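Anyone else keep sequences and structure tokens together like this?

Example one:
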Amino acid sequence: MELSMQRGLDATVVTAAGDLDIATSPELRRYLHAVLDEHQAALYVDVAAVQFIDSSALGVLVSIYHRLVGRGQGLTLVSPHERLLRTLRLTALDQIFTIVNTLPAGLAAA
């Protein structure tokens, strides 16, 4: 798993690549919570390069979502491929996360 972050004025974009699974979930949790500790902006997680996601990583995303909701925000997933979308639909997480195909215009170069 690889994680990177780009911070804009109104949003933070975290890009995830590789497998998000039980082996990488602790690092994902630490990374995303650290981002939220440091930045109050909206959070976008670009998952275009995520090859695989399991329930432990989905649980991390749910915990991040709840933290964001607590401060009046939501979690936006960017560019999920069809396999990931199917997983989100099966778990009904597509009903709580905002899912977009691309980043908003001003964030793409953040």
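And example two:
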Amino acid sequence: MELARLEKYKTQFRLFKSAIDSMQSYLQKVNRQAKDAVIITPYNLSAVLNIPETDAFFLLSLAEKENILHKKYKVFATAGNDFLGDFDDTHSIPEEITDPEGNSFDRDHYYVDITYELEK
């Protein structure tokens, strides 16, 4: 994991220097502790770093840009929050998704969570 690639952003975005430092420490910690890929959400990162969720989204997008994290789109049914699938980009999410039990969900009946994956 090449966290050093984030160093250039500390001078480019000076207001985020301490948050970038904290995110680097957090990613190192979870990378050492995890046995499998780690899923990080903007919500979780904002709670860990005690920053606004929009700032966490920004930091995660910097790590994604540097290929440290990979963005995933997780789709859930609106009713019941049942997991419907993982997608690599928004264009691959179909208009209608069928779950393993044969229930169909159109775009009005599912939502998408953006997550970031730190691969082992």
